[in-house]
Amino acid sequence: MSQSKAAIHSDHKVAPEATKNKSKSFLLTLIIIVFGGGAFGITKYIHARHHEATDDAQIEASISPVIPRVSGYVAEVHVKDNQKVKKGDTLVILDNRSWQIQVEQAKAALAASKSNMNVAQATTTVSRANMAAYEANISTADAIIETGKITLRRAIQDYDRYVSLIKDNSVTQQQYEQAEAAKQSAERQLQVLINQKNAANRQKNTAATRSNVTNQQVGVASAAIEQRQADLDNAQLNLSYTVITAPEDGQIAKVNVQIGQFLQSGQYLFSLVLDAKHWVVANFKETQLKKLRDGQRVTIHADACPGHDFEAKVASFSPATGSRFALLPPDNASGNFVKVVQRLPVNIEFTGSDPLAKNLRPGMNVDVDVHLD
User: Fold this and answer.
1) Which domain holds residue 116?
2) If we measure between CA atoms, which residue out of 249, 255, 254 comes closest to residue 77?
3) 36 partner at 20 to 30 Å CA-CA among 1, 56, 126, 347?
4) Residue 314 domain-assigned (yes or no)
5) How far is CA 330 from CA 184, 271, 317, 318, 333, in A?
6) Is pTM, for the whole model, over 0.85?
7) Are 199 and 285 within one domain?
């Protein structure tokens, strides 16, 4: 009985000491939490005064769609999924036989137009030669007519004298008749010469008309040659489009093309992610934009490269919030209004050459920290 009383007395003596130790531990823990929380809060407050950050940001890159410019059946596919390509590398080849035929047809049409041009030019040359000959005939006729006029004038003068002399019987009737015949012959010869000149003038006018026509034919033939040359250039261009090449260096995405498949002009085939440049689009709240400026230094943390800092800078600001470019932009006047903080896309460019940047892919999430100082 005495032993049990002693045990009870011992338990009552230990309990207050344990309670006191637990109170000290709790108080110490509480102090640590309070000071730790305060230090964390102060750190975040100081950071917030000199930084603006967001985790609503993604890697972006130029993505070029590979699209055929002409229709045709796929003859060869030279790339596969995720393949790296260089500018000018062949990606897809279309069956070009129909386009080759069009090139040959265009060449034949051009040759025919050139032949027509040669004929028109030859006709023009003949017309010009005829014009020169007619002009020479006219000049000769003018000279002969002048001689005929002189001969006629002399014959008329002789005839007038013989008319006066026949009245006085100073000449014989035969001499008078000879003078009259000479005058009539000179008149007829002059009229013949005049008729010949008029005929030559008519021939010259006809030749001039034909020359104008042939000149017009030359113009038409020249225009036809230009048209056929344009047709040939277009056919050759379409033929070159049957070989689809890479516009820039990059990496092919999933290839959805099979040999024998018919492709329409403008049909989307697959995408080429260009190697030229990567950047970040960070969507900042409108309440964060007050101190943001172009050129501010930015630190980027990518989920793909934990613990690594990428250096960048603010490049530009979008002219409107993302909601304005949505398929169905909000219309706050059409119903009940609920104010929602909007976000503005901000372009951020990488600075320097970071070897780990090759691990970044378009669409990856990143954390953006803008240094406001």
Assistant:
1) 97-240
2) 255
3) 56
4) yes
5) 110, 31, 21, 18, 9
6) no
7) no
